[in-house]
Amino acid sequence: MVSLLRSRSVRAVNPSLLSLGWAGLILLMWCVSLAGTFILFNAQTHLAYWIGGILIRTFLHTGLFIVTHEAIHRNISGCHWLNDAFGYLTSWLYALLPYRLLAKNHRLHHRFTATEQDPDHHDADMGNFWTWYIQFMKTYQAQGQVWVTLIGISIIFLTFIFFQISAINLLLFWIIPMVLSSLQLFIFGIFLPHRKRDPGLKDESCTRSIHLPVFWSFITCYHFGYHQEHHLNPHLPWYQLPHLYKARKG
After folding, report:
1. Exposure b/e, 179-206, CB count within 10 A at least 16 = b
2. pLDDT tens, 188-223?
3. What is the pLDDT of residues 169-192, one digit of tens each?
4. Is the distance from CB of 137 to CB of 99 less than 8 angstroms?
């Protein structure tokens, strides 16, 4: 299996215009959807549109973190400053997160997966969802970052209110998608791929993939449910993971 995943036919490709295009499209759609939901949604808007707006905003907010993740792996552009510019911008837009800390922790996660040196590992009870989720969140809010996030978001919130953006719209299309996105990323990027490993499963990736059709893999977390494929080929862009998954299944 590992030999298949590491075969020359599926080796990581160089950053391309397609990767840059995807990153730019996700960022653009996030901005347009934010402005649209703030301006167009009001008390006369049908409930179904409100629910759909929240789901779309959550999906696109998760997309911001996916772009940050791609920047960490330098999959967006061969131009380092452009690659990092996307990383700094999208991590800040996601939740005022520090790109350098995210990059450092994620590289440790790949290098020391499922060990004490893995910042995303939870060894107390890997089946306890909420305990693990809280620890996961605390890891990225350490060293005063929690205050940067809380104070920064409060200032931005009040600024939007000053410009007469509805508080309800802010909560439903900015704050709630931020929370739901963190759960989405944790479930499909950490909890399901890295929870209690099967007895006797010993491979260098220390992870498993979530077996979903390609469409649902995209909807759930931009194909990062194909997690074993990602760990074995971290420099493969997210949109190419289905090809690797199909090769393995074939």
Report:
1. ebbbebbbbbbbbbbbbeeeeeeeeebb
2. 999 999 886 655 445 555 788 999 999 999 999 999
3. 999 999 999 999 999 999 999 999
4. no
Check pLDDT > 80 for residue 132. Answer: yes
Of the candidates 106, 139, 105, 110, which has an alpha carbon nearest to the alpha carbon of residue 122? 139
Exposed / middle / buried, residue 111 (Cβ in 10 Å: 0-12, 13-18, 19+)? exposed
CA distance 175 to 157: 9
| Pairwise CA distance, residues 204 & 187, whole Å | 22
Q: Each residue of 18-46: pLDDT tens digit?
A: 999 999 999 999 999 999 999 999 989 99
> How would you label 66-76 residue by residue, b for 16+ Cβ within 10 Å and e otherwise?
bbbbbbbbbbb
Tokens of 65: 């973190």
What was the pLDDT predicted at 18? 92
**Three-class secondary structure of residue 9 per DSSP:** helix
Helix axes 47-72, 80-95, angle to 10 degrees: 140
Average pLDDT of the chain to the nearest whole number:
88
Residue 154 to residue 96: CA distance in whole angstroms: 11
DSSP assignment of 60-102 equals HHHHHHHHHHHHHTT-S-SSHHHHHHHHHHHHHHHHS--HHHH
